[in-house]
């Protein structure tokens, strides 16, 4: 928090209008899951086989200068040099969130050393049945939990990331929070899913009003034991208590195609350098207020969490609001309590779990 705070204050003092907070570094698109709501892995085999070299990763990190690096994908643990990439980023004192399905975590842990700079951010979408449905893999939950337990036992930092879609049961999500905290994770991260037009399941993306209702039910009347490693103001945004404009440059994305315009979710072209991305992107054409239909329902952290962090450091009011949201986390709300009594038919109760198999090329790479 201190690193982020001092970095943002420096940007403000330098009067930098647009600055990156987290670099989204995608070293490959291959994955060992094929989740129904994912729009990242539908590339042809020759693209799925490609990956960034460690040198390309370091160049991107140095160019961008953000204090945090999130490594999604794809599954970063399938990258043959992920240990070299992580080591290089730790040497640069970057805070790394290695986003993983954790299916390979147990067997790959020997590649890494525990460090305050390295966190395994494990994709867990909810309780066992919900998670397995969401990631289209029976047994995926148990494997992830096993990997997390081993990582925690060996002294690694472990957090979770949970993406929620329409049909999520708020009571079950709250139960999931209890289970994760009991397991010993350091914090949890939440986001509504983005309506990728390439995702196999197009029925369960949330509109803005439904997102707010769902997150209000989940995050009001909060338990003290729940820890979130996210801006408290962003959580209030998800609950409908705050309005933000998108700041897509806050979490710029670099992958095998270059610097992706304008954000982690959309692909409206690529730039060769970070500076070129900042200079040549028509930023005004994005965000919910822009009227761009691709942005209409988006409330995803990669667009809006940086807006929340920016508010914190933009005025005394923002700072006080953040302090208040950090200290008073309960968010007592009678109406939200009633929402928890509404009957929800969990999406997995009336849809069969479709186990999507990995392509043979992905399997070959996994075993390589
Ligand atoms: S609103 Fe969402 S999709 Fe649109 S630019 Fe922002 S993050 Fe990207």
3D architecture notes:
With 368 residues, this protein is an alpha/beta fold. It has one domain: TIM Barrel (Alpha-Beta Barrel). It is built from 16 helices and nine strands. It has a nine-stranded mixed sheet with strand order 6-5-4-3-2-1-7-8-9. The relative contact order is 0.14. The C terminus is likely disordered. The site of iron/sulfur cluster (SF4) has 15 residues, from helix 12. The site of iron/sulfur cluster has 15 residues, from helix 12.
User: Might you state the CATH topology name?
Assistant: TIM Barrel
Quote the distance from N terminus to C terminus.
Answer: 38 Å
CATH class designation: Alpha Beta
Could you tell me the radius of gyration in angstroms? 19 Å
| Strand line-up of the largest beta sheet | 6-5-4-3-2-1-7-8-9
What is the name of the CATH superfamily? Aldolase class I
- Sheet-strand content, in percent, reads 5-15%
Instruction: Indicate the percent of residues in helices.
Output: 25-40%
Largest sheet: 9 strands, mixed
Are any ligands bound, and if so which?
iron/sulfur cluster
CATH architecture: Alpha-Beta Barrel
Helix-and-strand structural type:
alpha/beta
Low-confidence stretches: 359-368
Number of domains: 1
What is the compact description of this entry?
By secondary structure, the chain is α/β, with parallel strands linked by helices. 39% of the residues lie in helices and 11% in strands.
């Amino acid at each position: 928090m201190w690193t982020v705070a001092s970095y943002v204050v420096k940007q403000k003092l330098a009067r930098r209008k647009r600055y990156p907070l987290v670099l989204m570094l995608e070293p490959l698109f291959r994955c060992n899951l094929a989740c129904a709501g994912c729009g990242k892995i539908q590339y042809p085999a020759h693209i799925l086989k490609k990956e960034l070299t460690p040198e390309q990763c370091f160049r991107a990190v140095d160019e961008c200068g953000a204090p945090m690096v999130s490594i999604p994908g794809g599954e970063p643990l399938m990258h043959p040099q992920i240990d070299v990439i992580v080591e290089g980023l730790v040497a640069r004192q970057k805070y790394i969130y290695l986003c993983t399905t954790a299916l390979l975590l147990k067997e790959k842990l020997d590649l890494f050393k525990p460090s305050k700079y390295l966190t395994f951010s494990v994709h867990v979408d909810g309780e066992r049945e919900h998670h397995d449905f969401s990631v289209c893999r029976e047994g995926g939950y148990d494997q992830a939990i096993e990997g997390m337990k081993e990582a925690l036992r060996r002294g690694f930092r472990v957090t979770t990331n949970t993406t929620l879609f329409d049909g999520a049961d708020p009571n079950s999500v709250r139960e999931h929070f209890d289970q994760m905290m009991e397991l010993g994770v350091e914090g949890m991260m939440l986001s509504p899913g983005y309506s990728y037009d390439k995702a196999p399941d197009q029925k369960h993306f949330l509109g803005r009003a439904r997102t707010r209702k769902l997150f209000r039910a989940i995050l009001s009347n909060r338990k003290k034991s729940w820890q979130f490693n996210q801006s408290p103001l962003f959580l209030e945004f998800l609950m409908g208590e705050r309005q933000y404009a998108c700041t897509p440059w806050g979490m710029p994305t670099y992958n095998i195609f270059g610097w992706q315009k304008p954000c982690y979710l959309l692909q409206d072209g690529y730039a060769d350098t970070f500076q070129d991305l900042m200079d040549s992107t028509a930023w005004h054409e994005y965000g919910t207020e822009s009227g761009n239909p691709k942005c209409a329902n988006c409330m995803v952290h990669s667009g809006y969490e940086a807006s929340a962090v920016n508010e914190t450091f933009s005025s005394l009011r923002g700072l006080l609001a953040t302090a208040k949201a950090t200290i008073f986390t309960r968010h007592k709300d009678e109406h939200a309590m009633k929402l928890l009594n509404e009957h929800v038919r969990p999406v997995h109760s009336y849809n069969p779990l479709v186990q999507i198999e990995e392509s043979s090329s992905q399997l070959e790479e996994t075993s390589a």
